[in-house]
Amino acid sequence: MYIDNNKSNPYSQHEQNVCDLIKADIASTGMAPPDSIEFGKIIRFSDNGQNNKNGWYVAFQNSNGSAAVSFGNWKDIKGKRFYNSNGSTITPEDKEAFSAQIQKAMDKAKNERKEKQTLAAKKANTIWDNAKPADPGHEYLNKKKIQSYGLKQSGQALLVPVYNGQKQIISLQEILPNGSKKFLPGGKIKGGFYPFGNPGLGSTIYIGEGYATMASIHTETGKLCIVSFNSGNLKCVAEIIKEQYPDKTIVICADNDLATKEKTGSNPGRIAGEEAAGAIGAELCICPVNSDFNDLMVDQGINAVEQALKKTRKIKDDTLEPLPLPSELLPVAPFDYALLPESLQPWVKDICDRIQCPPDFVAVGVMAALAAVIGRKIGIRPQAQTDWTVVCNLWALVVGRPGVLKSPALEAALAPLNRLVVEANKQFQIDEDIYQLAAVAAKFKKEAGEKQARKMLTKNRKADVMAVLAVDEVPIPVLKRYKANDTSPASLGELLRQNPNGLLVFRDEIVSLLKSLDRDGQDEGRGFYLTAWNGDSPYTFDRIGRGLNLHIPAICISLLGGTQPGRLSEYIRHAVKGGAADDGLIQRFGLIVWPDTNSAWVDVDRWPDTHAKNRAFEVFEYLDKINPLQIGAVQDKDINGEPEGIPYLRFDLAALELFQGWRKDLEHRLRGELHPALESHFAKYRKLIPSLALILHLANNGNGPVSETATLQALAWGEYLETHAKRAYGSISQPEVSVAKAILKRIKKGDLKPPFTTKDVWRPGWTNLSDRDQVLAGLQLLEDYNHLIQERMDTGGRPKTLFYLNEVAA
Predict the structure, then answer these.
(1) Class of the 734-809 domain?
(2) d(CA 744, CA 783)
(3) What is the predicted pLDDT for the residue at 25?
(4) Using the 8-state DSSP alphabet, how is residue 292 labeled?
(5) CATH class for domain 119-314?
(6) What is the mean pLDDT of the chain?
(7) Cα–Cα dist 616/625, whole Å
(8) Is pTM, for the whole model, over 0.70?
(9) pLDDT at position 3, please?
């Protein structure tokens, strides 16, 4: 939580840390967090930093350092988090207790809300029963040029009843002569509506937001009209009316909030109309002018409403705001060997020269291997005073066509790591031999002790035989692992339990792994990998073996592999469209490289540079055996003076200034107009850049705080990697992008008037639009990115496909 330094701080340090985490988690959903955090009850707050009260949270904490929060808003953003800032583990019992407290608070608030709604409903019925019919000459009715359709009046206020689906009045809306409106305090509005008109007249029902809007439409049509009172209630009311009148044609009459769109970039009236129509498969009619159908009638007359209602179309699915079209394959920055630790540059150059592969492939493989060796030995705290700690594990993905030598490049990059694997296997064999001898010796000692104990008990039944029976347990040797390949998440978890420093998962084809995690029944495995990216989060397998509970204090995985452009594009497209992959897994690959391949090839046939190769191994060996405290790392202590958490370094002053400047720029960009997928990807750079800086600092034999030089290298990595990320995310639809843009251009010029068919696009032979298959692909892309809406019409013969322009894009 942010505490104003000019005010007294009402929180302890622990409470403040928990408040910080709660606010950060609320902010991560896109909501504006509250200014302060209160515990023990449901709190309402503005989720957009303005005047609404659409957000809510309920938080609890206990004395052992644990806390929990549940939060959300009326747009169905929801979350539950558990926290601990003093190092102890949050137990299942704590989680269960917190969940019970949260549920109790929510049940209490729900019951209180129901009581208020019941009282408000009684009051509404009393007021309604005692009110008189509305004055036909009421100032508001005259101003809006509408009639009263069943309204009443109390004093100067017009009364619009709010009914539920059981035809009961649950609240009232008051409309004053000046047009201001308010509902009864505590009354229920969600799902409430006001119907007027005869449902038996005709087969069409009209639903819209305000009374004046629907009175204008009723004046023109004479049909049953439904008032939903606001845009947020439109979808809910539409679903109720659809259930009551399943055989009727329903038309959603949406407001057109163009003035709001100019200010905020969003048109809430249109969006709500699209969502409501999509939810029930209704017809949609959007007001052709800024505001609503009543303003249209007042300004242009009732005939304008009649003409507008003729322009309806059916919405079958929720229509979203159009997404920016991806660019064609974007240029990328070439790799600069200066990005690597100086001691490794000759070795990497030698590999690339001999293999004739892009240096990008080898470089990211080396960085991922270095990250795996460092693992959880030492972390970095990127800020000067907070306890935000970054573990430097990395996820790397190399992208290239078949035959560009991805696999040989990665195998060469992992040579020093594989050498450590060989050494570990040798040591394990030695330890295993020693263990076998020690186990035999322990067995003999145990048998001898048992024999001696029997003798002692024969002489004295009360003799103390514990000392002679005690035999030291011989520890079973554990193979030190650096790397895993094809293994299940549960087996990988067991390896991580035995190797708490973490390890590298190397897969020759990464997308195959990702797709396997997309399948039904793989939720636990996918969650395991998502958690392992953090490098410092605990994980518990509750279903492994026969009832074994496997708890790992912290799982840390570095991930490395390759894939082909087509497979990556397909996977990213699936993620962008909201498939099973749309959870940020692909965005965790901070080291995505998709380099241009050199058209020139040189036959290089010479011995490897042995000196450079051995020097590279020395770097890996040094990092494998590094003692963090001897190079200036610090480790926190708990209240008993025992080490807590992993050792860590911070930036030196010059490096910190660089990082802070970069971070400020990043946060501004993340709040700008990036594509959501890229925004999610670049958000992970908060972890990536400090990780790279720490790796480079240690690999350059750095001591003490992370240096300015290493930080500059890390920031240069960030600039380089950003170009490759943009290529990857921009590649998901490359040949059809130019076609899609050409179609939109023709629509804007007026050459192509919606609704149109596929033939209408390719038959004229326009530039980039003459190939039927490419046109189909371009139209599909425009539909995927919510620019066009497809509708199939039954013509009695061959179905006809029409394309409409998404009204939200207009």
Answers:
(1) mainly alpha
(2) 12
(3) 83
(4) -
(5) alpha beta
(6) 85
(7) 15
(8) no
(9) 25
